[in-house]
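User: My instructor asked us to take a sequence, write out its structure as tokens, and then describe one feature of it. I'm not sure where to start. Here is the sequence I was given:
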Amino acid sequence: MEETGKDSNISTKTDSSEKLEKKNVILFGIGFIILILGYFVLTYTDSRGQNWASILSPIMLVGAYIIMGISMIIK
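Assistant: Let's start with the prediction itself. The structure tokens for your sequence are:
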């Protein structure tokens, strides 16, 4: 006997929630660039942590991780 109709309901398309959209990739890329720049600025901090790099680099690093996290959450 031949099964008919059982496999015809299976869709070959991927679910839209599983694929990355262009805006997600761009947002993740921006976050990654800020992350790299934040680590680069971190190399300019002084040992007492009282210069511009000591203030700016943590803000950049935390901001980059937040941006990258948001890019993975939004649809």
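For the description part of your assignment, you could build on this observation: The CA atoms of residues 44 and 53 lie 6 Å apart. Try explaining in your own words what that tells you about the chain.
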